[in-house]
Amino acid sequence: NLLAEKVEQLMEWSSRRSVVRMNGDKFRRFVKAPPRNYSVVVMFTALQPQRQCSVCRQANEEYQVLANSWRYSSAFSNKLFFTIVDYDEGADVFQQLNMNSAPTFMHFPPKGKPKRADTFDLQRIGFAAEQLAKWIADRTDVHIRVFRPPNYSGTIALALLVSLVGGLLYLRRNNLEFIYNKTGWAMAALCVVFAMTSGQMWNHIRGPPYAHKNPQNGQVSYIHGSSQAQFVAESHIILLLS
Questions:
Q1: Which single residue of 61, 64, 193, 206 could bond 126 by disulfide (Cβ 3.0 to 4.6 Å)?
Q2: What confidence tier does 66 reach under pLDDT thresholds 50, 70, 90?
Q3: What mean pLDDT do residues 133-158 have?
């Protein structure tokens, strides 16, 4: 009966919001305490404005996209729930788990304690919804197809660029010698090469945070401690130095 009540309550909360907000008491009751026959993905974060965690806000947006994709998918069930624990609402949970950084994603399996692989490697992989979905599939065998809300900014920008180029060619239709300018094409090629090797493409693909701020002491790190990952700020620093 206790398990049925817990599942029913989580389903009710999930029907209202894709991501269930939890404090310390709810976390201990629905995530830590048995019985439990469902998996729980928890995002530990610090979203309050005074924390000034821009990475937390960006990661939360991706997390919401993933949770919404699961909630509105045909495969939605009571086998997986998405929750969030904010530092200002559950500081005791952070202390209990010896957690001193945010954001952090953890998977709590139906039975047993979380293993090392149940903590998402955000620093190496990034926090894109697609990467989170792949990690969840590895841990739970629940496959989530990510659906993003339509974004027409790219289409509008492309249309404006085509219109601008078309207008320029029309205005200079009687003098198109600049198209055959080898120096201009060489400069354009160099710009593309520099963009591809500057780290911006890595940032675009992996979606790393701009920097990392420790929620405990407020210290901000702009250089990643591992050679296998980087922050967005690193590529900007290299750009300024060059």
A1: 206
A2: very high
A3: 87
